[in-house]
Amino acid sequence: xxxxxxxxxxxxxxxxxxxxxxxxxxxxxxxxxxxxxxxxxxxxxxxxxxxxxxxxxxxxxxxxxxxxxxxxxxxxxxxxxxxxxxxxxxxxxxxxxxxxxxxxxxxxxxxxxxxxxxxxxxxxxxxxxxxxxxxxxxxxxxxxxxxxxxxxxxxxxxxxxxxxxxxxxxxxxxxxxxxxxxxxxxxxxxxxxxxxxxxxxxxxxxxxxxxxxxxxxxxxxxxxxxxxxxxxxxxxxxxxxxxxxxxxxxxxxxxxxxxxxxxxxxxxxxxxxxxxxxxxxxxxxxxxxxxxxxxxxxxxxxxxxxxxxxxxxxxxxxxxxxxxxxxxxxxxxxxxxxxxxxxxxxxxxxxxxxxxxxxxxxxxxxxxxxxxxxxxxxxxxxxxxxxxxxxxxxxxxxxxxxxxxxxxxxxxxxxxxxxxxxxxxxxxxxxxxxxx
Amino acid sequence: xxxxxxxxxxxxxxxxxxxxxxxxxxxxxxxxxxxxxxxxxxxxxxxxxxxxxxxxxxxxxxxxxxxxxxxxxxxxxxxxxxxxxxxxxxxxxxxxxxxxxxxxxxxxxxxxxxxxxxxxxxxxxxxxxxxxxxxxxxxxxxxxxxxxxxxxxxxxxxxxxxxxxxxxxxxxxxxxxxxxxxxxxxxxxxxxxxxxxxxxxxxxxxxxxxxxxxxxxxxxxxxxxxxxxxxxxxxxxxxxxxxxxxxx
Lengths: 436, 248
Hints:
The complex is a heterodimer of chains A (about 425) and B (about 250). With about 425 residues, chain A is of the alpha+beta class.
């Protein structure tokens, strides 16, 4: 059985009608892949960019492959199917006294998607990215069949798959490393900062003390207040949270609002209110601390039918100060409301098309329109000037020309991918946009 | 509502309603024997239940539509693993794309999967429960059994046969303390309905599973969701000149 579904990237800037199959048995899965000329894996469909659908390919939805297949108490390794949601996995591991530190911010994201984009969490500065926690994975590809790969076995395919945007085949199984869960709850300390430079300094200062670390910044403020906000310093603690909890809002992410509600006035009001709402110290349940976006779906709904654009860049430490000045000038000139500004601390080396590298990770959300498109194109130039790395999974707009310039190993990725899959069996709209 | 089963068999447990039922039972601590045709799928399903719910669960690959299927031997094996069996759930079933109009090729396989296999299991387990004077057999029919049409004609007939047989079993077993329950399922979000243009809303397998467990201990024929009874009633009483024009 298959369906013709109207699919959209999470940022809603890319939409098309695609053929989708949703197998529930391995036999159905392999037959579905073998039967189609072109396929692409699809998990929760929450990627900002159009990674899981294409006009020419059949999307293979893997949400029914959501099982935990085994756990090794000695090593802490857990074996899972790709459709396992990270929220489910996190709860399961917590019961075992274990933890996977590289977690995305929303609990219904699937582990297959995490591997395909080598996602990062709020502790990248000491835990690395999701790929660092993948011991091995098993792919299914129409021309290669089932292929188990790791750093020791088919290492080239393994490296290509982590952050490979699903273009090496459908992941059918993963073996993930885990670490002991330090404590069942998280202390969240909110440290006010006066501007974006101070926020970055605070991240570096707290890096040795914090388990997770990120900031929220208002990038609509002028002068020395540009980036005023809060640094969230999180540490595992055994002290339980208070029993009373705020109710979760249940608004759909897929907005029914007729138009975007974010403009310069509403953005300033909302960001001001958010800043005032942050308590200096609170104890949060593990789930709430791991998945801060859960319960705040109204934020995305407010962008309306045209959606949003997100840009994420890793700026090298040496270029940070100059980058901030240039970023401020660009935003002020554009007059685009920046609905989210956030920083994280990154370490490691960039490779292929992965979002890795050492520096400060800055994220911006803006409403999707012509002005924000111009702003983001200017940001591409800024990123290039400051040797920054962009995040392909967050920015639907990042085309071949930009990718060629921003990723030193773009050509290598394309070449390796062509060698593994010369017929381009795995196709997505994102593949077409990035030109790989 | 009586106590939930402490031990149960679920046939067709690797996908759809069967998988949701197995998980719902596991969440309540029921010791399980789960069955489906493909070994890899059922072993994955059993491993997941053991890992996530911490309950005892054994997966067994078995094709109940096979001519070699031996319900008695299977019931013996189930008893060896579970001991006394409180409940047997049989949501296994299949449709075929080529089940449209007079296609004799689909009659035998669909009858074997949707009627013969479940009926053999229900009779065998019911007979054993009758001796213990407790237990329940839960079978799954379809709204299609009450309103057959060109598409899925053989499927509808096989489900109707199962429904009729279940009514007979109820008459036989209920006086001996064994409940026999049949659900005529409406649209459920399973592989059988995926991608089909549907006029009415889908129920999730999880909703169906919860409803089935809420009815624990009851006998009879039920529609799920319940409002499908009105739809089927209306279709059954529609004058033929109108019914034959329907495209659904």
